Amino acid sequence: MTGAAVQWLRDGLGIIGDAAETQALAMSVPDTGGVYLVPAFTGLGAPYWDPYARGLLIGITRGTARAHVVRAALEAIAYQTADVVRAMEQDADVPLQALRVDGGAAVNDFLMQFQADVLNVPVERPGVTETTALGAAYLAGLAAGVWQSLDNLRAQWRVDRRFEPAMNEARRRELLAGWRRAVERSRQWATG
To answer: Tell me: the pLDDT tens digits for 151-162?
Structure first.
């Protein structure tokens, strides 16, 4: 549901006109002002597996503005990704060296930098971010003989931009602890 948070800001609340606005809004404030958004609109998936969790916007004060909520929504995408990555690392017993991203959210520089910061690994954005269509084209090209092997396809991938972690460890721990507290408050909200 990570992308659904931005859609909710646009369609549900009407506080943005389109997703492209989120980057400038998020960067217009130094932080969320302590606001966290847990977009558990249909429960929480991995790694929580809680169908009774519900969305939560917490930490609001009189000073909370639209930009803080938008930034909290973008940060929630990064936090949820970090949750899944950490679970995968634990299961595989292999640390992540870098995260390669794609899709519409990948064009948001603020989000990509924040993702690198909370994961503490580089985030690599390819030149082509809409890789679903590209993958279909690659498969067709393999079948038609345009490319001879998967190695030929791997050679096509190019980094557009690499986002290096820049957040200090104390700040990262503080933000992730706040996220975990917010997630815990959203859990088991609805009863079966």
So the answer is: 888 888 889 999
